[in-house]
Input
Amino acid sequence: MDFLLSKKLLLIVTGGVAAYKSPEIVRKLRSAGADVRVAMTSAAQEFVTELTFQAVSGQDVFTSLFVGETDSGMGHIELARWADAIIVAPASADFISQIATGQAKDLASTICLASTSPILLAPAMNQQMWKNLATQANIKKLKQRGFLFNGPSSGEQACGEVGLGRLAEPETFVAVVSDMFKTNHLSGSKILITAGPTQEPIDPVRYIGNRSSGLMGYCLASVAAEMSAIVTLVSGPTALPAPKGASLIAVNTARQMFKATLRELDSKQDIFIGAAAVADYTPVKTAMNKIKKIEETITLEMKKNPDILAAVSQHPNRPFTVGFAAETENLERNAMNKMKKKELNMIAANLVGLSDQGFGSSKNELFVFYKRSKSHIPRAEKLQVARSLLNLIAKNYKASKK
Ligand SMILES: Cc1cc2nc3c(=O)[nH]c(=O)nc-3n(C[C@H](O)[C@H](O)[C@H](O)COP(=O)(O)O)c2cc1C
Output
């Protein structure tokens, strides 16, 4: 899972010959999971057509300040608010000069002035234009104001000259833009997360499982890494790729998850988030061979599994402990009882059994309870929900240290 998943990125294309490479940047960012929209200056449209960007982004392209409502209903202010980050590639010498002096003479420059999101500039121009003291003074000013840069790189230029001024290669943008979303909110904190279902074996081919996809826990691991935490994810069997930046420990049964989790506590963790759907019970015996279909009815005797959350909260190396409660009714009462009984710092409760959220769904809605307070995280993609929840966790974890 990449940091760019579900991120809203606005690519501004300005009038430089390197604009022919910008559709490739759109493709790369979209393959990394970002939602990309494109705005173009009128000079940019001399180099590449609006249609090309419409095709590669799958969205309307924005070209003018004065066209009223577009099909997607986005004016310059809405676009500026919509974007989690803005990328200007290529950034012409002229455009760099416009934003260095705070101009708002067309759609692209107005968006930059109206935005509070981070802005990445990828300059591309003739090497003399780049070297010019006017350009260098603009770059210095923009760096001081917090603008970020990718490139320019050095090499042969479209004009036949050789030097600094080439557009950074399209391949570099996914990594550079991902870095823009890294925060230091959990810098250096060690976070242990459990995720996914467990499988309790009945015989060599059958098990008792549950409908957890693991997505919520994987999103939490991915976002925690994005917030610069040191992340360990203990996961039951899922179909998900390992989250970027997290160490993954794969387990099958509840007992294996229990052991792996407690082993990780030996090396002291700061925060524990129990997002796994751990089986409460496991068969007393696992049959050595496949059980044959002979009897009309069979009975499976089950015994209680160890309670991972309770064991973590009572451990001598107890971290700041956050539990999940999947409830089908009386959400607040059941979640609060669980939090008190297991002595948790926080609990995130969700209603399961609804078709469009929780287990097996890409969306979730959470009610988060902590010491004398509670919060509601509205229904959204699990990655967005993970971001909101980790911000709450980071805030409460830091408050608990004071
Ligand atoms: C063929 C051609 C290629 C150009 N290439 C560049 C370039 O690579 N970088 C640049 O800064 N300007 C370049 N320019 C100049 C810009 O297009 C010009 O400064 C324009 O006003 C930029 O407008 P904008 O910043 O609003 O997009 C080029 C102009 C022409 C005619």
Observations:
- The chain has two domains: 8-180, 190-401.
- The chain is about 30% helix and 25% strand.
- Residues 14-18, 41, 43-44, 92-95, 124-125, 129 surround flavin mononucleotide (CB under 6 Å).
- The first helix runs from residue 22 to 31.
